[in-house]
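INFO  loader      accepted 1 record
INFO  loader      residues=196
INFO  predictor   begin
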Amino acid sequence: GVDHAGLGSLDLSAASWALHNGDSTALGTAIMPAAASSFIPLAPRGRANEHLLAIARPSGGATRSETQLAHLRELALLWLAGTGLRLTILAVPPVIPLIHDGLKLNATQVGILTGLPSMLFAFAAVPGALLIARLGTRTALVVGLAITALGGALRGAIPDVAWLYAMTVAMGAGVAIMQVTMPPAVRAWFPNRIGF
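INFO  predictor   done
INFO  writer      dumping tokens
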């Protein structure tokens, strides 16, 4: 925190403004890239020749650039998960005629193929919540993303209906895990941007 000894509210406001805008001296720089602390010399009211040193530490001891990098990683993970939630499911309807002809599926089998992911959203949501409790939000999100990617990529590896269904089940389970993981992740990582 800031050393308040002998400082008036105007001095503290000036220190806050300077720190917020990166106007610091000594160890700090304009964007505090490597400083653990920023130092601002302040003169107490009525004693212009005396200087106190106000020290401000970024939260958790992390520098501003480290915090920004962590936020970018979290945002990238959320973006990947959000894309993975829908892309693997929305990619199937445009190619259903090709799947129908290539695997000789009847209408019932096509209906099962398109309905499996939605069914798994309900069945895998509770295990997904338990996975969050056991592994943590970030790890559960990465696990869900990996399962979705693997299941989605392997769906077309073998031209077989049973294989297609099995990989669709795996992909749907991964999507269900990500779906229950994203709200707590946004709440934990971006508490001031809850609209994400």
